[in-house]
Design brief:
Blueprint (H helix, E strand, L loop, with lengths): L18 E4 L1 H15 L15 H9 L4 E4 L2 H9 L4 E4 L6 H12 L4 E6 L2 H13 L4 E7 L12 H12 L3 E8 L9 H24 L6 E4 L5 H4 L6 E2 L9 H6 L9 E9 L5 E4 L15 E3 L5 E6 L4 E5 L10 E6 L2 H5 L4 E6 L2 E7 L10
Parallel strand pairs: 1-15, 2-3, 3-4, 4-5, 5-6, 6-7, 7-8
Antiparallel strand pairs: 1-9, 9-10, 9-14, 10-13, 11-14, 12-13, 15-16
Helix pairs in contact: 3-4
């Protein structure tokens, strides 16, 4: 962990560029830190969308993590293949995906699969599908506590929806799912205050459910930015995701969080078209392009400015013309790791500056077998 050149490969000549490198020692640090922050692996439900890989799932299971969250049926199927105990599909299944979810339950009888709803129409559809397949489906009510992306506002309508869920003989009321990804203030004191304020309505809804003599709902809450706060709540499962690999976006925005970047882009200079300009083989197809520049943070190339990007190319202004040459390898941390991983078939595994393995990004596709 103290090696200044922890990211580099000793013999990079045969390495394809661009590649995405991962470092299991650093991943293990991040897993152990997540557990130490909660104090109990049983109160973690990490999101697999960041890495979509069985090896990293297994590393967590070896540390006692048994519950996971995912966003796609392919990710859920990967978790089933890993024999995980409890999987929450945190995307309300609609259309063909509802039937795929039923097939998922049938294929992996030893894994408990649950999913989200935020309206009575979806509740009715899933209830009818459960009845026709002679199963019961565990469901969570997806709560909108300010992000305004999905979910139902935690008011009387949410209480009524949860009551309907509880009373339905083909469904199982699991609890409340609360994702507050809109809370990203870089000041941890302000971010915690905003997190606690937004969570007050969830606590009130939970009490209202209990007052109706309905079993107390479980709660899954937060992502990576609010993980330090939700992990303190004894009756809440925290669900970070980016914490496993980390990235420069969260690393720069939340410097007080001690997670380590564990994924690095390996790239090469492919051209020096004019004075002060370098071009890298790191286009839209190789790194998440939805963020404004900079989309990566070079580890070994300081004083650079990213000025344009296309499908295959990243163009950078650089003020030291004596060092870089065409073909030179360089290393960078992506600003947003989750969609960057999805651009690669494999992760190149590095230990002690040496390639030791290649891990497949199994769930990067829309469909596996289901």
């Amino acid at each position: 962990m103290t090696n200044e050149n922890w990211y580099s490969i000793n013999h990079p000549d045969g390495v394809i560029s661009p590649s995405l490198l991962v470092y299991p020692d650093r991943i293990q640090h991040n897993i152990d830190l997540m557990i130490s922050m909660t104090g109990d692996a049983n109160r973690l439900r990490p999101h697999v969308k960041t890495y979509k890989n069985a090896n990293i799932i297994n590393m967590q299971m070896e540390r006692g993590i048994r519950k996971f969250k995912c966003a796609t049926i392919a990710e859920a199927e990967l978790l089933g293949d890993c024999n995980t105990v409890d999987v929450l599909l945190a995307m309300q299944p609609v259309g063909a995906n509802a039937q795929r979810f039923i097939e998922l339950i049938k294929k992996y009888p030893n894994t408990k699969f649950s999913t989200l709803i935020d309206n009575s129409k979806t509740l009715t559809i899933l209830s009818e599908m459960a009845a026709s397949n002679n199963i019961r489906i565990p469901l969570w009510i997806d709560i909108n506590n300010g992000m305004n992306r999905t979910g139902i506002i935690p008011d009387n309508d949410a209480l009524e929806l949860y009551s309907q869920l509880h009373e339905n003989k083909y469904l199982i009321a699991e609890g409340l799912h609360v994702y507050d990804g809109h809370l990203r203030n870089s000041d941890p004191v302000i971010r915690e205050q905003e997190c606690n304020t937004a969570f007050e309505a969830v606590i009130y809804l939970k009490k209202s459910i209990e007052e109706k003599n309905i079993p107390s709902p479980k709660i899954v809450a937060g992502g990576s930015p609010t993980f330090p706060f939700h992990c303190k709540r004894q009756d809440v499962d925290a669900s970070p995701g980016t914490t496993l690999l980390w990235d420069s976006g969260y690393g720069n925005q939340f410097p007080e969080m001690d997670f380590l970047p564990a994924a690095v882009l390996f790239t090469r200079i492919v051209s020096k078209p004019t004075t002060g300009i370098l071009c890298f083989d790191l286009g839209h197809k190789s790194v998440a392009p939805e963020m404004p520049f900079p989309r990566i943070e070079f580890i070994d190339l300081k004083h650079s400015k990213q000025i344009s990007q296309s499908e295959e190319h990243l163009v950078v202004e650089y003020d030291d013309l004596t060092i870089p040459e065409v073909g030179d390898p360089h290393y960078a941390i992506p600003r947003h790791i989750c969609p960057t991983v999805a651009k690669y078939d494999t992760l190149t595994v590095i230990k002690d500056n040496t390639i030791i393995d290649y891990w497949p990004v199994t769930a990067r596709t829309q469909k596996s077998t289901i």
